[in-house]
Design goal:
- It is a single chain.
- This protein is an all-beta fold.
- It has two domains: about 35 residues; about 80 residues, Immunoglobulins (Immunoglobulin-like, Sandwich), CATH 2.60.40.
- Strands 6, 7, 9, 10 and 11 form a five-stranded antiparallel sheet that branches. Strands 1-2-3 form a three-stranded antiparallel sheet, with no helix packed on it.
- The N and C termini lie far apart (about 60 Å).
């Protein structure tokens, strides 16, 4: 029973490596320690193409400091950053695209921990035809 049979101690509640220690109390003895990763959630991306532009929207990730949006010009091309957004920005319109061409997009969240950016996984790649 919680609080009567064991205690749980956690060393952190932030992003990074965390450790939980469970210790038996009363009629129960023994200790077990487990290490695990706390990470940011992954944003979900949607894209909509229009003449010479694409509108991109992503979901908010709890605890994120901001987002990095990337684009590539072909399936086999390399991604380049097209927008670094703060945590309240969840949409971006990319203009100046070539009409009739398909572009590929992905986004990931980041949080600043101890002065460094810690990133989430990338969203699923979405394409949009301009």
């Amino acid at each position: 029973m919680k609080g009567k049979d064991y205690t749980v101690t956690l060393n952190r509640f932030e992003i990074g490596t965390a450790t939980a220690t469970i210790t038996g109390i009363g009629n129960y003895t023994g200790t077990i320690t487990k290490t695990f990763q706390i990470s940011l959630g992954t944003p979900s991306l949607t894209s909509k193409g229009a003449k010479k532009k694409a509108t991109l929207k992503w979901t908010k990730v709890a605890g994120a400091s901001g987002y990095v949006l990337e684009m590539k010009k072909s399936k086999s091309g390399n991604y380049s950053v097209i927008k670094t957004a703060n945590s309240s920005t969840l949409t971006f319109t990319k203009t100046g695209l070539t009409s009739g061409k398909t572009y590929y997009y992905r986004v990931r969240a980041y949080r600043i921990v101890n002065g460094k950016k810690v990133y989430s996984s990338y969203s699923t790649v979405k394409s949009a035809r301009s």
